[in-house]
Specification:
Elements (H helix, E strand, L loop, with lengths): L8 H15 L1 E2 L2 E2 L25 E3 L8 H9 L4 E3 L16 E2 L4 E3 L8 H21 L12 E6 L3 H5 L1 H11 L2 H8 L21 E5 L6 H15 L2 E6 L6 H11 L9 H6 L3 H17 L4 E5 L3 E4 L11 E5 L1 H18 L5 E3 L8 H6 L5 E3 L12 H15 L4 H7 L4 H11 L5 H12 L11 H22 L7 H4 L30 E4 L4 E3 L2 E5 L5 E5 L3 E3 L4 E5 L8 H5 L6 H4 L2 E2 L3 H6 L5 E6 L4 E7 L2 E8 L2 E6 L2 E6 L3 H4 L1 E4 L3 E2 H16 L11
Parallel strand pairs: 3-14, 4-7, 7-8, 8-9, 9-10, 10-13, 20-21
Antiparallel strand pairs: 1-2, 5-6, 6-12, 11-12, 15-20, 16-19, 17-18, 17-28, 22-23, 23-24, 24-25, 25-26, 26-27
Amino acid sequence: MADLRPYPFAALITRMFRELAEQRSIFDLPERKFVLGYPELDLAVDFQGHRPATALGPAAGPHSQMSQNIVLAWLAGCRVIELKTVQILDELDIPRPCIDMQTVGYNVEWSQELKLEESLEEYVKASMLIDMLVASGELQLAPGFANTVYDMSVGYDLAGIRSERVQAFVRGMMDASPIVERLRMQIPDGFAHLRDLDFRTKLSDTLTLSTFHGCPPDEIESIISFLLDEVGLHCIVKLNPTLLGPQRVRALLNEQLGYSELHVPDKAFVEDTKWNQAVDFVGRLGEQAKARGLGFGVKFSNTLIVDNHREFFPKKEQQMYLSGQPLHVLAMNLVGQFRQTFGDTYPISFSAGIDRHNFADAVALGLTPITVCSDLLRAGGYGRAQTYFRELTGRMGKLGASTIDAYTLKAFGQQCGALDHAQRHAPTSEHPAIEQARTALANGHTPEVDAGAGWWRQAVSFARQQNTEHYLAQLAENPRYRREQTNKPPRKVGSKLVLFDCLTCDKCIPVCPNDANFRFRVPKQTVPVERLFPNAEGSWTREIGTPIEITKKHQIGNFADFCNECGNCDVFCPEDGGPYVIKPRFFGSPEDWHTFAEHDGFYILRTAVSETVLARIAGREFNCIRRGDEVMFSGAGFSVKFNADKPNETIVGRADSHVDLTYYHIIRLIADGVHEGPLNYVNALSQ
C-alpha cells in the first residue's frame, strides 16, 4: 500500500498512553531511548526568536510527515521539528521503493505524501500529543526541555506558494485554533482530564523554503520576499550543494572522497543558482528581513542530484538524490565558504550526513537547527539520536561547559582568542566581566554572564567562525567519509522471508520512519494444513498436509496505513523478500482493503460480540465472521459454517470443489495474535 492514511486521533492517544503505562514505550520506541533532558546542562539554542531546548531536529522528510513520526522524533530529543515539505501538487506518483540506505543515502522521494489539509492536521495532532505528554507528568522532563519549535517547509515555486490552498495551510500553522478545538472533542473519556489543556494554537511563525533543484535565483528571492512582506514569517532558504560549482563538487566527491561512480549531471550546475547569485540575494533578503523585524538565514544543504547508476530504484528514474556522509563534506564546505563571505551575520541551518560522530561538532559551529534524516533510517532508527546527546553532553562535561555558548567557546580551544577578540571591541567598562568569564572558563566552569551582552555575543560568534575553519581542516582528512568506509551494505543471510517466523532480529521495526512495522505474539504451535472435500450425501472428506510450525517468540506485522513502501525495512532485513511485502499486512479500514486489491493483507473488526476478518492470502480472498463459537467462512467457490474449535467435525455449507481450512487457521491465529498481544495500531482501533 503506497498511500499513507491518517490515523484516528482518539486511537493515537489511547495507543500512546496505554503503551507507555503497560510496556514503557511509545510507538515502539523503548523508554530507555527517550531523551528527556539533563538537569545540570542547558542545551537550548536561539532560533528565529525562539529558544528550543536542543538544536537537533528531523529534516523535512520521512521522519516529519505523520503525527507519530513527529512524536517519535520529539521523544528522541529533537526540538526543532522541520516539518515535511508541502506544495500545491499533493497527488504525486512517487516511485517505489524510494529510499536506498544500503551504503550512503539515495532517494527519489520528495514533498508530502498526504493532501495539504491532511498534512496540516497531522502536524496539529502531533503538537497536541506532545502537549498531552508534557502535561501528563508521565515523562521526567528536565526543566525547559519541552520547548519545541515547529518549522514549516514549503516549495517549490511562487505561484504554488501563493495559491489559496498553500496559504490556507500556512494560516492554519499560524493559527490552528479551529483544528485544535475539533480535535479536543475527540480526546477519549479515559483521558478527559486532558481536554481542557491550553493546547498550542500558533504552531509556527518560521518557514524553510525548499527550493529543490533548478529553481531560478530570482524565483527564490521573489518567494522569500513574499513570505517576509505579505505573510510575516521568519524565513530560511535551503540551498543546493551545486553552489560549490562543478569543479569543486567533482573534486570533493569523485577525487577526495573517492565516489568515482557518482556523476552529477551538467544540467544541475546549469539550472541551479550560482554562488554569486546566492550571495547577492542573501544580502538583499537579509536587509529586507531586518527592516521588518524578522529573521532570515540559509540552510545547507539540499540533497545532491546524481545519475541513477544502481538497480534499487525503478529503471525509469534517471536521477536520484544523494545524502549521508559524502553530502556532509560538501555541505560543510558550503558552510565554510558562506562564513568566509558573511561571517556569522546570518544563522545557518544544517542538514547533511549528521550522526553521533559529528553532531557535537556541528553544535560547536553554532549551526541551528541541525537536522537529520539518513542516519535515522539506519538500524536503531529514532533511538540513534540518544547517542548524539551522549557524545555532546560527554564533551560538555569534560570541558566544564554547562551551556551551548560555553561549549562553543571551548570545543576547539578557542576561548582565549574569542575573549581577546571581544575585549578588543568592547568598551572598557565591560572588561572586568570579560576577565571574570576568562577565569571561569579556565577553571572549568561556565561563566555567569548575560547571554545578551554584546561582548559575549561577539566572543561566541568569533568562536563559531574559528571552529568552522578548524572543523573543515580536519574534515578534509577524515577517512570515515570516504567511499571505502561507507561501501558496506547491511548483511544478508540468504534465507527467504515467509508469512510466519523469521530471524526475529526486529531490525525492520525501528528503521521504518512511519513506525509501520510492529511485533505481535502468536503462541508456538502447529498449524493444521487440511482441506475438506464435500461428498454427495453431505459429509466431507478430510485431506491432511504437512503442518506449519510456528516456533518464534513473536511475529512481525505491517500496518498498511503507515507503510509507503519506501523499501527501507527490506534494506536492513537480513532475509530476502521485504517485511513490508511478505509479513502480515493490516489495513485500517475495509475500504482500503478493497481498494488495494493487489496487496495481500487483513482487515479485522473486533467488537464485544463478534469479529469480522477480511483476508487476502496469496491473492485469494476470504471473509471470516465469528460470533461466539460459530464461524461463517467464505471465499471463491465456497461458503460454510462450523464450530470455531471443531471446524472439520461441524462444517456445513457448500463448496464447488473444496474448502481449504488452512486459511481459516491462519486467519484465526493472526486475528487473535494481533488483538490479544501488546498494543499496536490494529488493536488500538478496537480499544
